[in-house]
Amino acid sequence: MEGSESEAAFNSLNLNPQLFINDVLNVADDLVDDAFDHFHQQASTFLKTEGTDRAQDLSRGVDIIRKKVQSDLDKKLAVWEQYCLDYVFQVPEGFDPAKDDEPPVNASLCQNAFVDADLDAELDLLRNELTEVGKENAALNREIQSLEGQSASRDRCSALVNATLQQYDLNSYHEMFQEMVKTASELRMKVGKLQTEKTEETERLKIGWINNEHRDPSVMEIRRGFCNAKLEDLEAFIAHMKNM
């Protein structure tokens, strides 16, 4: 760039690109030095090497790492410096900063660029619409909360009704079962009573038949015992008992 039109253009503006690049390189070197000084201090504290033989080993190790990082950084910064000189700080051919053919910018035009009545009106309209939408949204939220409350109330009522009906059904089944037990007990009592009455009636008829003095005289021997009864009399007695 030295001796070129770009150098002349920057000199006319009292600018020096090389000084800018040198300042950037110096700042980068200072940052690297500060970073490794801090790294050395933290490593010494963490490893507790201060005042020991290992302090020199740590210093040599940090210096080796610093030289490696500094070497790589210098190579990249050299490429960056050349790129800036070849492209960033090059001006178009024939550029003359002393010429200023462009008309001055009207300040009112800049102001008008930021002031637009129609745009402000549209923004106000949008703000009003957003406000209305917010109000409608709040009203819908209140309505939804009210409906949710009503739904919860109906659910509680339904649960109470179902519980009541279930309890009623359980009571009905219990009462029906108790009634069946009572009916079965009464039926057993009646059947037992009928059996008792039938047994008593049968015994009464037997006793009456035995004590009947007008029946066949041959049967009278039964009252005296079966030991003296004849075979024909016993067969007649058995046949008579079967027919009863």
From TrEMBL:
<keyword id="KW-0995">Kinetochore</keyword>
<keyword id="KW-0137">Centromere</keyword>
<dbReference type="Pfam" id="PF05859">
    <property type="entry name" value="Mis12"/>
</dbReference>
<comment type="similarity">
    <text>Belongs to the mis12 family.</text>
</comment>
<keyword id="KW-0131">Cell cycle</keyword>
<keyword id="KW-0132">Cell division</keyword>
<dbReference type="GO" id="GO:0000070">
    <property type="term" value="P:mitotic sister chromatid segregation"/>
</dbReference>
<dbReference type="GO" id="GO:0000444">
    <property type="term" value="C:MIS12/MIND type complex"/>
</dbReference>
<keyword id="KW-0498">Mitosis</keyword>
<dbReference type="GO" id="GO:0005634">
    <property type="term" value="C:nucleus"/>
</dbReference>
<keyword id="KW-0175">Coiled coil</keyword>
<feature type="coiled-coil region">
    <location>
        <begin position="123"/>
        <end position="150"/>
    </location>
</feature>
<keyword id="KW-0158">Chromosome</keyword>
<dbReference type="GO" id="GO:0051382">
    <property type="term" value="P:kinetochore assembly"/>
</dbReference>
<dbReference type="GO" id="GO:0051301">
    <property type="term" value="P:cell division"/>
</dbReference>
<protein>
    <recommendedName>
        <fullName>Protein MIS12-like protein</fullName>
    </recommendedName>
</protein>
<dbReference type="InterPro" id="IPR008685">
    <property type="entry name" value="Centromere_Mis12"/>
</dbReference>
